[in-house]
Amino acid sequence: MELKELYKEIILDHGKNPRNFGKCTNYNVDAKGHNPLCGDKVHIYAKVDKEKKVIDLSFEGEGCAISLASASILTDVVKGKEYSLAERIISDFLMMIKKNDKMKTNSLDEDQVTTMMSLSGVKDFPMRVKCATMAWHTLSEALKGKNE
Which tens digit of pLDDT belongs to each residue from 40-82? Predict the structure, then answer.
């Protein structure tokens, strides 16, 4: 299977069967994101412990397949990570989407990197970049204590 086909399959799977959809139990951090250009909406919920570890992570939202797939991938990859690592993953993902071709974070397994890289093709479609990055920006703001 070609890499492009694999990426397409990953996006379609996460878009149709989003992981961690709904409110996680006892969340203590949340934020909403909205893309007014296309109407995509996301609400990120996280349970962060005293040691700043993202114990649980989920989302609710509506939008295109890329937006939903990206939020699903985000929750799958970041859940269970320390806050500092979560921030590095978010930053690395945003740089990959906007500029780079490769993920630099070496704290992820190969499957996680491949899953995140499945969204790399959106950089060729500037209108879709916001769809792919909205949930990531929203989680970053939530972890900083901002709600929108």
Answer: 999 999 999 999 899 999 999 999 999 999 999 999 999 999 9
Q: How many CB atoms lie within 10 A of CB 1?
A: 7
Helix axes 110-117, 65-78, angle to 10 degrees: 160
Spatial separation of the C-alpha atoms in residues 14 and 131, rounded to whole Å: 14
Query: Where in the chain are the domains?
Result: 3-143
Environment class of 88 (CB within 10 Å of its CB; exposed 0-12, middle 13-18, buried 19+)? middle
Q: Structurally, what CATH architecture does the domain formed by 3-143 represent?
A: Alpha-Beta Complex (3.90)
- For residue 32, give the amino acid letter: K
